User: What shape does this take?
Amino acid sequence: METKRINQTTQKAKAIIEDRVKLKDIEQEKIINKFSAIPSNKKVVITIPAYNEEESIGAVINEIKTVMNNTNYIYQIMVIDDGSVDRTKKITEENRVLFFSNRCNKGLAHTFKKEMETCIGLGADIIVHIDADGQYPPKYIPEMIESVLDGNDLVLGSRFGKGIYQGSIGKKLGNMFFARVLSLLLGKNIRDSTTGFRAFTKEIALLPIKSKFTYTQEQLIRAIRNKKTVKEIPIEARETRKSRLFKNIIEYFYRAAITILKIFF
Assistant: This one.
């Protein structure tokens, strides 16, 4: 039953990709066809959501390439642009990676769902999700992929516990608070429930995301409630710009709490 559902979703996702590529150039079509045709059950898609990230997106892509080209993994970098109005699209296309774009700014949760649909359509076996702002060092990607191959369904790049967080004290306390709440609700110790740096199987990618705010906590909750194996790998995050997901810590607490309550109750 699970295999049948995956196959049906994959066919639907492929149709979505084909429809999107009609609007793209021949170079994008070549990238898709080449990657999809590779006979492997260990194909990796490294997906990056981006919104007005002209200052960092090029460096992030190049750093990922440097790391991954020193491994034997079959991988493809993909950027989903959320309606940027700066040079994000131009810089991404210059780096010759797979690129899709929302016609206008849809928000992180919507963009993440689009990422998952596209990854499944590309035939990804393992998906690595990383932000475009440079907060998460790509050097941890091979370790995270290896952890998925070892049998873990969802691997989190954790900035807390043994990891190192470089954000504001307000965001740090907020993240730690919700990690503690989820740990109590789920019966599993979670250090970093909001990290955007994670690697996971295609089965995890198929889990529904109903939030209109973000995907981070919801994906984690649904993974654990579906008896999936979750592991955290400590990382040393970098200092980055202020979050664009929320205006202040009060808004973050409110929207994150609503998301959690809707899932549990």
In short: Residues 2-264 form a domain with the Spore Coat Polysaccharide Biosynthesis Protein SpsA; Chain A fold (CATH 3.90.550.10). DSSP finds ten helices and seven strands in the chain. The two ends are 27 Å apart (CA to CA).
